[in-house]
Here is the input.
Amino acid sequence: MNRRYLFYVLLAALAAAAQPAAALPPLRAQLVDDATLATLSGRYYDAQMLVGLRVDLISSVATPQQGAAAASGSLLVLREGNGFSVRSDARSSASGGGDASASALASGAESVRMQGIGQIAQIAGDGNRLSNLAAIEFVDPARADRDAAGFNGQTRSDSAAGAMHAQVTFLDGGVQVGVQAPGVSLQQRVDAGGLGGIAQSGRIAGDGVVAGNRLQLQIVSAAMTPQMSRELGLQQALEGLRALPR
Here is the structure.
């Protein structure tokens, strides 16, 4: 199966669900050089191997004026019998405040249209810190479900304090997280419709702001059964016979 098509099939599972957890698992990365990537190949053996999807997002900002805002969302979709179970979690908080009337905002990112995975960072000012982090990995059902018992079942959360605002919303075709502060705008979007894909953007026009977007997408797969392993070995052996002289 085409990797691009598989990606959109997985995102389409979001169309019927909602969910996130406040504490995300630590991000892990394995560095691979271009030479290794150029030699990678593989096959898609059985649709039953894909049994679910989990997405966790969190956006947060802290200002020098003691303002703070954060929004997080988690969605877990797992196959159960002939259907799916869906669990969701949506949380937000805001404190402090500040006057946004005189605050400018770095512009341009709002007009960018992205397909696939896109990250945008725009910063104007001094002493600012902004991060856009995204991780995609394959996991087993037990790992994806490890803390789902604490999900609050909400699909929307909205908090505001003065000019500080945090919001998370699960839509029919995905999820959107946004955090605003004076001179600051953070956005994350997972979209199964339209262009589709994942987008993270952060815009800052100010001084001393600490802000970040974080997203983790986990594709849940079932373990390969002994029968599938034997079939794969047989197939590879037969393919090896093609190289023999005739």
Summary: The first strand starts at residue 50 and ends at 62.
